[in-house]
């Protein structure tokens, strides 16, 4: 019986790839390879001959993986995990986390599920982190915009910073808009008037 | 009336235009749907999301519904196509090195002679030609395999198909990973602009009227959402008809270039819409009539015989029983839905729902409800015809 699984992780971002590898290693899987470069994906997978391929659902090179299932003949061809629709819950969890997986050959389903559970959890954490990072970045940009708008109001109306902010907030509320939108409008108008 | 939201997946290619125009010109809103266009990074992602009901409908390569319905690609789900979005619009290209090699062997670049071109290509290389296609189940691949078979007399190991995302095609030929590639616009034009590749044939020189993209949906979705399906077909039909009017071409180009859905500059969109194709950097563009068809020649009608032809090709590629595969494939095309939902529109309906594919060398008038239908040309490069019977 095959006790280990050879797993290929297709991921260009090195930090993300390592996170997945580490999570899988913590679970005792140690036959793991990372493919970071997009070129010749099918050929590299052919050389590695993995049992399972993990790839981001949104990876632009996923279609190249479809090719592998056509090129290699008969029983050893990777098939998208979603072929097994009996496992709806796991399929949905993987999709939501942004993970797609290809299974090659016929390893024990329970082993596949075990790897997938770990990978799904890791993908969820990573996409959550990515979302938070984006939100943080946006918040930073928004704050700079609001600060600039406050500065313009303070100069134009000779008011304090707090007064400038409450004026923008009041305007936003009365127009049913967000403070950031008011700040944008103010900056656009100020640029035009310059 | 509340406008109904409908999630439509698409891949940002020039031939997704009917969906973008349906939204941007308000045909969809006018008919009562809020068309959410959801851009997809790959055909595999689009396929999985459609199969798992995250998308209601999608812009699909014409062989995809057949391959999915046969269980050959992704989760086995019955997918139907009640409307064809476009015909033709693809190109075959080679690396500059192979192009030069072909010239040295006496090949004349006319962008029109498939038999001489493929024979010269096969002579250029003593190993199988590595052919890049966007997806295993694409019209690009079916046409190229048909070309090799027609020129050589038998399907053989003369080529090896390598699925490659279209934006990477130019790079892959430049690196020597591919000998040639088959892609839809704008990626042929983009490959030429990198000066690493040249175009040697339009897909239409292999089959003069090849259904390229279809509007795909799950069969159960179409059954359970009859009204939404009808509304969508009418909106997309109006958009396709608008795109098919030559006088709208400059405006279409501008709308598509400005649309957030495509994100392509107008110089990448124009060649496909005007049919003026630049085959080699520095040469003058060649004009290809009917390079990409959105409407004329009953392009939008889902002929069961077109599905049958796709099925016949796939049965050979996948080693399946031909008769059964052809029938399953013909059943994926849904002229019944097209006829019923467009009955109240001014769409001209043909008398039959299947025809002999490849029979028309010239535009030919056929029997239709309004008597205005002109089909063809739809000839294959080798002059074969395909009569699948009444299906």
Report the β-strand fraction of chain B as a percent range: 15-25%
Question: Main sheet of chain A?
Answer: 5 strands, mixed
Give the CATH level 1 class of the largest domain in chain B.
Alpha Beta
Question: Can you identify the CATH superfamily of the largest domain in chain B?
Answer: Periplasmic binding protein-like II
CATH architecture of the largest domain in chain A: 3-Layer(aba) Sandwich
Question: Can you tell me the CATH topology of the largest domain in chain A?
Answer: Rossmann fold
Overall CATH architecture of the largest domain in chain B: 3-Layer(aba) Sandwich
Query: Any idea how many domains of chain A?
Result: 2
Oligomer: heterodimer
Number of strands of chain B: 15
Mean pLDDT of chain B: 93
From the alpha carbons, calculate the radius of gyration of chain A and give it in angstroms.
25 Å
- SSE arrangement of chain A, N to C: EHEHEHEHEHHH
The largest beta-sheet of chain B arranges its strands as: 2-1-3-10-4-13
